[in-house]
C-alpha cells in the first residue's frame, strides 16, 4: 500500500501542499484549471528570463566556449518528440536537432541558435518549423541553419582548448546517445581539445524556480488533482487498471497538458506494492487497494501526485490503519518543510513515525528492530516496508534538482510510503517463519 506525493513550494511565508481539500484550495485549483483550459499557455517563461539564465550560466563557468545540445528527432516513425530539459531550460526551444553556441569573453556573451531550416516538403509531414530567420524574434537568439554548426565549431575550436557541453553527453557509455555522437563528430578532428560537461552548473540554476515556473507547476498540479478526482469517480471492482489510466490521461489533455510527465502508474492489489509498475492491465477486485501515481506535464513542467484508494470505496480496518500511519508521517515531514530545512532530517522524522506505527501494528518487532540481509548485514526492519527516500525536486523533470538545505523557490515532493508485499516472508526474507 502506498500513500501520496505532496507537492510543496518552499517560500518564505507559506507552504502549499496540494490535497483534495475543500475551501480556498479547491477554488484555486478550479481557477487554475479554467485558465489552463482556456487556450494557449497564459503562464510562460519569457525570452528575457531565458536570456538571464544563459547569462547566469556564463557568469558561473567563466569565459570560454559553451555548446548546448538539443535532442535529435526520434528515429521511429513520427513518435512524439520531447526536448531534453537542460536545453529547454536555457532556450525554451522545443524543435529537434538544435544546438546553441555561447562564447563568453570579458563580460560579453555572444550566442547563436542552430535550428533546422524551413523545408516545405518536410513540413508537409512534420509541421511548420521556426527556421533560422525567425529565431531572433521567437527566442531572442540569432539563428543559423544547423547545417552550419560543424564549420562554426571548427572555427571556434581554433581559438579554444576546451569545449564546455550542456546536455546528456556520456562518452564513456557502452551505447552512446544522440547528443554524445553529435558532439564527438564535432570535436574528434581537433587534437588537444578537452570536453567538459557543465550540466551541474545548469542544474544549480534549475534548483530554484522563478515566478513563471511556479505558475506553470501550479497548473500542472491542478490538472493532476482534477485527474485524481476523475479517478475516484470511476473506480469500481471489475474495472481494469487501463480504464483508469484512460480516464486520467484524457483529463490531462482536456485541461491542456501536453502529455504525462512520466509513465502513469495504476497498480491494484499486488501491483500496488511495485514502486514503478506501469503495465496497468489487471482487473481490480473488491477489497483491493489501488495506487495511482501520476503527473501531468504543462508547459514542460511536471507534477507528481500519488493517491491510494480502496477500489470499492471503503477501507478495511487494516487498510485504514496503514493509510493513516503514512498520512501521519507525511504530515510531520510537511510541517518541517521550509527554507533551511533538510530533506534528510525530514526523512528521519517520517521514518521514526513509520517505524513506531509498524511496531504498534505488529508488522515489525520494534521501532529499532533489524533483520539480516542476504549480504549478512543488519538493516532496519522498517526498510522491508519503506525502501526509498522521502522525496525529490520537481520541475522540467519529475526528478528535478533541489537545493540542500531547502531554499525559497525550491519545489519538492514529500512521499513516504508503506509497501506490505505479499511475498515479504516467502521471497524477500525467505527464512523468516510465517
Give structural notes.
The chain is built from 13 helices and 16 strands. It is an alpha+beta fold and 434 residues long. The strands form five sheets. A six-stranded mixed beta sheet has the order 5-4-3-2-6-7, with helices on both faces. It has a three-stranded antiparallel beta sheet with strand order 8-11-12. Strands 9-10-13 form a three-stranded antiparallel beta sheet, with helices on one face. The longest helix is centred in the middle third of the chain and has 24 residues, at 211-234. Residues 1-7 and 9-24 have low confidence and may be disordered.
Strand content: 15-25%
CATH 4th-level superfamily of the largest domain: Creatinase/methionine aminopeptidase superfamily
Label the structural class.
alpha+beta
Supply the number of helical segments: 13
CATH uppermost class of the largest domain: Alpha Beta
Instruction: Report low-confidence residues grouped into runs of 5 or more.
Output: 1-7, 9-24
Gross morphology: globular
CATH architecture of the largest domain: Alpha-Beta Complex
| Arrangement of strands in the largest sheet | 5-4-3-2-6-7
Proportion in helices: 25-40%
Question: Any idea what the radius of gyration is?
Answer: 24 Å
CATH topology call of the largest domain = Creatine Amidinohydrolase
- Please indicate the count of domains: 2
> SSE order in H/E notation?
EHHEHEEHHEHEHEHHHEEEEEEHHEEEH
Overall average pLDDT: 91
Count the beta strands.
16
Report the sheet with the most strands, covering strand number, pairing sense and barrel closure: 6 strands, mixed
